[in-house]
C-alpha cells in the first residue's frame, strides 16, 4: 500500500497563524507592535485594545492564543485583568509588558505567580522602541515560542492526502521551534571530576524554576560557589536576587565587579552585563562585562559557562534550565571538553525547551531531568556520587 507524502509546504499550510491580542493604552505602542506581528507569516493581530477592561470583555469573542498585556492602564490594569482573562480562557498565553521600574518589575513577578507565561520590558520612549531590535526580536520570539503550545490545526485539510502512520507533520508548528527534539536523546556518563562550582543558566520560565531549585540545594550553596545567569533586564535581576535569597535562605545578590566569589552566597548576573568568574591572584572574583549581546542576550549564559573552565577546569557542573534559544549550549560543550558535566531540564517541565533542548540535542548532557529531580541530583553529585 502506498502512502502519500505530505510536503512541508502542505503540512505547514494546515496551521492557523497565532492569534495575538494587544492590550496597551498607548496607541503608538499598539501600532508599532501590530506592524511587527503582521509582518510575520505565522502570526496575526486579532485585537488591539486600550484597557484591561476591554480585554476582559472581549477576550472570548476575539479568542486570542497570545495576549501582550500592559501593566499600567486606565479602568483595569494588567495585574487585575490577568486572572479574569485566564478565568475566561484558561490556555491563553499572557506576556506582561512594562517599563523598567522597580514597581513594574515586582508586579511582573507577581503576574508570573498568577499564571502569566512571561514578561517583556518596554523601552521607555517611542524613539527608543523604534531602534530596539533586541526588543522586537525578543517579543516576536516569545509570541512564537510560547504560543506554539496553543497552535491549532486548521479544520479543513486536503482530502487527497492520506494520513501516514504516525503523522509527524500534524505535531509540528508552521514555523519550527529553535530546537526540535529527536526521538531519542543520548546522554553521556558523568566525568570522574569532583565538581567545585555550580553554574546555572536560564531564560523563559527561569525565575520560578530557579526559586524552586535553590530551595532544594542549600547544602550545596553552603559548600561551593553558585553563579547564575538569567536572561533579564536591570531592576528585574535586583528583585530576582531578593526572591532567590528568600527561597534559598542564603545570601543572594547581583554580582559586583571584582568581588570575591565564596561558598555560601548566590551570585546573579546583573541585567545588562555579562558575568564571568575570573582569577585575581590567589582569589576568584566576579568579572562584569559590558560587551555586546551574546545569542541576542545580555547577560548571556555562554560567557559564564566558559569562564568557569579557566577558574575550576573540569570541576564545573553546568545546569541549563528552561528558556528560549540555545544560549548555554556552546558554553556547555566547552565545559564537557574540559572534563566538567552538564545537566539539562527536561522538556515536560520546561516552559520552553529551547536552551535545555539545544544542550540535550548536542549530546553534552549527563542527565536530562524534571525540575523536581534536579536539586537532588546536584546534591548527590557534590557529595561524590558519579552515577
Q: Which consecutive residue ranges, at least 5 long each, have pLDDT under 50?
A: 1-13, 152-183
Strand order, sheet with most strands: 8-9-7-6-12-13-14
- Number of separate structural domains: 2
Radius of gyration: 22 Å
Averaged pLDDT, please? 87
Helix content: 25-40%
Terminal Cα separation, in Å?
Answer: 47 Å
Subcellular location: Cytoplasm
Modified residues (4-aspartylphosphate): 70
EC number: 3.1.1.61, 3.5.1.44
Family: Belongs to the CheB family.
What does this structure look like?
The protein is an alpha/beta fold. The protein has two domains: 14-150, Rossmann fold, CATH 3.40.50.2300; 197-381, Rossmann fold (3-Layer(aba) Sandwich). It is built from 14 helices and 14 strands. It has helices at 8-13, 27-38, 52-62, 78-88, 102-113, 126-130, 133-147, 206-214, 218-223, 236-248, 301-312, 329-337, 355-361, 371-381, and strands spanning 18-23, 43-49, 66-70, 93-98, 118-121, 197-202, 226-230, 252-254, 266-268, 274-280, 283-289, 316-320, 341-345, 367-369. The protein has a seven-stranded parallel β-sheet with strand order 8-9-7-6-12-13-14, sandwiched between helices. A five-stranded parallel β-sheet has the order 2-1-3-4-5, sandwiched between helices. Strands 10-11 form a two-stranded antiparallel ribbon. α12 (329-337) links the parallel β12 (316-320) and β13. It is globular and about 60 Å long. The termini are far apart.
Summary tags:
387 residues; alpha/beta; Rossmann fold; 2 domains; 7-stranded parallel sheet; 5-stranded parallel sheet; 14 strands
Amino acid at each position: 500500500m502506498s502512502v502519500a507524502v505530505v510536503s512541508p509546504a502542505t503540512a505547514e499550510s494546515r496551521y492557523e497563524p497565532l492569534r495575538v491580542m494587544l492590550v496597551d493604552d498607548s496607541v503608538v505602542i499598539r501600532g508599532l507592535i501590530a506592524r511587527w506581528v503582521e509582518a510575520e507569516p505565522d502570526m496575526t493581530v486579532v485585537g488591539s485594545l486600550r484597557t484591561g477592561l476591554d480585554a476582559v470583555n472581549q477576550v472570548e469573542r476575539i479568542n486570542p492564543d497570545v495576549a501582550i498585556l500592559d501593566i499600567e492602564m486606565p479602568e483595569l490594569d494588567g495585574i487585575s485583568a490577568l486572572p479574569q482573562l485566564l478565568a475566561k480562557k484558561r490556555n491563553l498565553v499572557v506576556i506582561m509588558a512594562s517599563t523598567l521600574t522597580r514597581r513594574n518589575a515586582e508586579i511582573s513577578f507577581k503576574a508570573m505567580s498568577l499564571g502569566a507565561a512571561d514578561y517583556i520590558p518596554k523601552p521607555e520612549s517611542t524613539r527608543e522602541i523604534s531602534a530596539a531590535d533586541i526588543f522586537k526580536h525578543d517579543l516576536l520570539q516569545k509570541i512564537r515560542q510560547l504560543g506554539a503550545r496553543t497552535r491549532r490545526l486548521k479544520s479543513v485539510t486536503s482530502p487527497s492526502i492520506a494520513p501516514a502512520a504516525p503523522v509527524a507533520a500534524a505535531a509540528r508548528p508552521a514555523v519550527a521551534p529553535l530546537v526540535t527534539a529527536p526521538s531519542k536523546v543520548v546522554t553521556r556518563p558523568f566525568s570522574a571530576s569532583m565538581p567545585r562550582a555550580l553554574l546555572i543558566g536560564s531564560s523563559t520560565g527561569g525565575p520560578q524554576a530557579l526559586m524552586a531549585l535553590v530551595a532544594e540545594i542549600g547544602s550545596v550553596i553552603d559548600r561551593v560557589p553558585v553563579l547564575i545567569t538569567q536572561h533579564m533586564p536591570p531592576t528585574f535581576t535586583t528583585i530576582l536576587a531578593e526572591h532567590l535569597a528568600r527561597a534559598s535562605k542564603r545570601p543572594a545578590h547581583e554580582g559586583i565587579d571584582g568581588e570575591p566569589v565564596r561558598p555560601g552566597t548566590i551570585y546573579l548576573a546583573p541585567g545588562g552585563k555579562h558575568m564571568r568568574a575570573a582569577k585575581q591572584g590567589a582569589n576568584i572574583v566576579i568579572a562584569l562585562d559590558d560587551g555586546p549581546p551574546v545569542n541576542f542576550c545580555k547577560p548571556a549564559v555562554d560567557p559564564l559557562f566558559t569562564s568557569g573552565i579557566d577558574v575550576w577546569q573540569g570541576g564545573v557542573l553546568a545546569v541549563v534550565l528552561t528558556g528560549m534559544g540555545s544560549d548555554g549550549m556552546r558554553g556547555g560543550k566547552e565545559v564537557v571538553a574540559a572534563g566538567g558535566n552538564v545537566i539539562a531540564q527536561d522538556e515536560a517541565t520546561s516552559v520552553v525547551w529551547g536552551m535545555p533542548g539545544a544542550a540535550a540535542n548536542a549530546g553534552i548532557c549527563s542527565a536530562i531531568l524534571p525540575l523536581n529531580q534536579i536539586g537532588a541530583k546536584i546534591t548527590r553529585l557534590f557529595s561524590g556520587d558519579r552515577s
